[in-house]
Amino acid sequence: MNNINHEVLVIGGGIIGASISYFLSKSGYDVGLIESKEIASLTSSHCDGNILAIDKSPGFDSQMTLMSQKLIHELSKELVLPFEYRRPGSILVCENEAEMEAAKQWVKQQCDYGLDFKMLDKEDIKNESKYFSDHILGGLECATDSTVNPYMLTFSFIETAKQYGLKVYEYEHVYDVNKENNKFCIETTNYYFHSDKVVNACGIYASRIGDMLNIDIPIYPRKGQIIVASRNETLGLRKVMEFGYLMSKFGGERQVSKEMEEYGIALVFEPTESQNFLIGSSREFNGYDKKVNAKVNSLIAQRAIHFYPKLKDMNLIRTYCGLRPFTEDHLPIVGETEISGFYVAAGHEGDGIGLSPITGLFIEQLISDKETEIDISPLSINRFKEA
User: Fold this and answer.
1) Is 186 in a helix, a strand, or coil?
2) Taking Cα atoms as reference points, which of 265, 281, 275 lies closest to residue 317?
């Protein structure tokens, strides 16, 4: 097999690997990107496309997302391909007084950290969409939340990085990674790759790459399904979630049926640029199974109609399933490991699209021995050993 040399090798051609490749190539590094299938063929093309702060824990998590939102705004002017970038904001809706009270606390905490949040009352909700159910009491808004086409953003990172010299190697399955004499060697389907540094951006498969170097990377696949409905009339212009989505995401208790709880069903409603609607969401651990579950689809539809009765008249176009790279504390792993020169950038779960810009920048800053924009020690892989 042929030998190929690069300064940095990025393993994984999803949106995280694409962003890292862009920032490194732009900084002058000789970068090779290795992908076992096609670019954006897994999680990055089986998700929605949100850059959300509204569902992030107040503090480090939400501040990191705000930085990523500012970056994506700049990138919308820099990258060579348009990626359907819009900045409509998003809202969470509340069904009862307990949720409204919790929402007030959430808004106060986020505002204390400098984010643009505000409460919404029942009249605000009706002004948002006349199709909301009458039982909704109010909610909250984050004005800075934006949305993209994740597939197109991934390709835009790649195509722009190619202008800086990025080389992309598709259909190259990684069989082995080792390090000898301060050099990494990666054996793939057709090549032996050699580099000074390696970035593991393999998402749900990051742990398998770690195993090749005897590094434990605690990332697991978490399944989620989305329904795509066709536009009959405009139900809303921006992302809407139920406040219970936060509890579903972070493992809190909710007042829903046992089945809704079992599959982590919570309303997510997202209009696309073409004005079709993405409707979710679900969360379950079922290994690497990517089959669509009809029962889960039915539960998602029931939950959506609970908030938008008009949705019962909408036509279903298709449905799809994606696997999100989950970590126990809901933060990604970003940084260097105990093996010098070997970095991990994975574990973003449902936040990979939104955090892709800032993750790419962080890895470039780490490899370049620059000071990162903020202290990213909460993202270190060592936190799991310490715990």
Assistant:
1) strand
2) 275
Q: What are the b/e assignments for 277-302, b being 16+ CB within 10 Å?
A: bbbbbbbeeeeeeeeebeebbebbbe
Q: Tens of pLDDT along 210-255? A: 999 999 999 999 999 999 988 767 788 889 999 877 766 666 667 7
Cα separation, 173 vs 178, whole angstroms: 15
Question: Could you tell me the two tokens for 177?
Answer: 């990674």
Residues 54-76 pLDDT 10s: 999 899 999 999 999 999 999 99
| Residue pair 292/319 in contact by the 8 Å Cβ criterion | yes
Residues 6 or more apart in contact with residue 257 via CB below 8 angstroms? none
Residue 10's closest CA among 148, 150, 172, 149? 172
Residue type, 147: T
Side chain identity, residue 385: K
